[in-house]
From TrEMBL:
Stretches for region Involved in Mg(2+) ion dislocation from EF-Tu: 82-85
Compartments where found: Cytoplasm
Top-rank taxon: Bacteria
Protein purpose: Associates with the EF-Tu.GDP complex and induces the exchange of GDP to GTP. It remains bound to the aminoacyl-tRNA.EF-Tu.GTP complex up to the GTP hydrolysis stage on the ribosome.
Keywords: Cytoplasm, Elongation factor, Protein biosynthesis
Entry's Gene Ontology cellular component terms: cytoplasm
HAMAP family xrefs: EF_Ts
Organism per entry: Thermophilibacter immobilis
Family: Belongs to the EF-Ts family.
The name this protein goes by in its record: Elongation factor Ts
Length: 291
């Protein structure tokens, strides 16, 4: 009898998106022949998953989860074949459950997530079951766990799950997280992230290569003016400042009130709460942008 290795079991699982134990049983029965094992899996009731495993999944949704204490959260993109399924409450509810598993289990990658416990089984088993129930191929495209140990998280979902984000805030008092003022502020900032697509939360977080690239363009533009080098430098720096104001979250004008920047809005809510509220970071997903 041929030896059924872990690598062979993994290969069959990737081919069929079937549960690990079922793959192992099929390979044992097929004496290690992977093609025969596929046929055995089809007769064992996972034929739908096998048939659909190669289908394109260009539709789907983005789900978020934030824990009750707002300290831990996750954002996850789940894909399917059609927009009809992508907006199905069963599908979107499953995506939300997966985001919660990411937050609580902190898996390293998609394969690790599939091995995480869920509803008395594993995520991989539940995913296969959903493929059976709904009748379309599905894939976990990407996910990220987010934490705010010194503060709280806020989130926003837009366009029926096609755009979503989580924002981390630092709070001088954990009690602020439960206040109506902070919740409204966190929602507004998360909405700002969705609408204005900033490149970073704070100026110091803008990657150096992005700054160098922008500055090089502005210097080249300034050189076209024919003005003295000192003036060209000031022109380039001025345009870089404008870039920061347009693309750094805390420096952007608040979309609901252009008289305030997000930083000034944070100062306003800080004064109301009698402490300090700071915007620290964010994660923003647009559906279909997974690498």
């Amino acid at each position: 009898m041929a030896q059924v290795t872990a690598a062979l079991v993994k290969q069959l699982r990737e081919m069929t998106d079937s549960p690990m134990m079922e793959c192992k049983k099929a390979l044992v029965e097929a004496d290690g022949d992977i093609e025969k094992a596929v046929d055995i899996l089809r007769t064992m009731g996972v034929a739908k998953a096998v048939k659909r495993a190669g289908r394109d999944t260009n539709e789907g949704t983005i789900a978020t989860y934030v824990s009750d204490d707002a300290k831990v959260g996750a954002i996850l993109e789940l894909t399917c074949e059609t927009d009809f399924v992508g907006t199905n409450p069963k599908f979107t509810g499953f995506a939300a459950e997966l985001a919660q598993v990411v937050a609580t289990s902190d898996p390293a990658d998609v394969e690790a997530l599939k091995a995480c416990p869920m509803n008395g089984a594993t995520v991989g088993d539940e995913l296969t079951e959903m493929i059976h129930v709904i009748g379309e191929n599905m894939k976990i495209a990407r996910f990220q766990r987010v934490s705010a140990a010194d503060g709280a998280l806020g989130g926003y979902i837009h366009l029926g799950g096609k755009l979503a984000d989580l924002v981390a805030f630092k709070l001088s008092d954990d009690a602020f997280a439960a206040s109506a003022e902070f919740k409204a502020f966190a929602h507004d900032v998360a909405m700002q992230v969705a609408a204005a697509a900033p490149v970073a939360a704070r100026r110091d977080d803008v990657p150096a290569d992005v700054i160098d690239h922008e500055l090089a363009i502005y210097k080249a533009q300034a050189a076209e003016s024919g003005k003295p080098e000192a003036i060209q430098e000031r022109m380039a720096q001025g345009r870089l400042e404008k870039y920061f104001k347009e693309n750094v979250l805390t420096e952007q004008e608040f979309v609901k009130d252009g008289s305030l920047t997000i930083s000034q809005l944070a100062q306003k809510v800080s004064k109301t709460l009698g402490g300090q509220v700071e915007v620290m970071s964010f994660v923003r997903y647009t559906f279909g942008d997974a690498e």
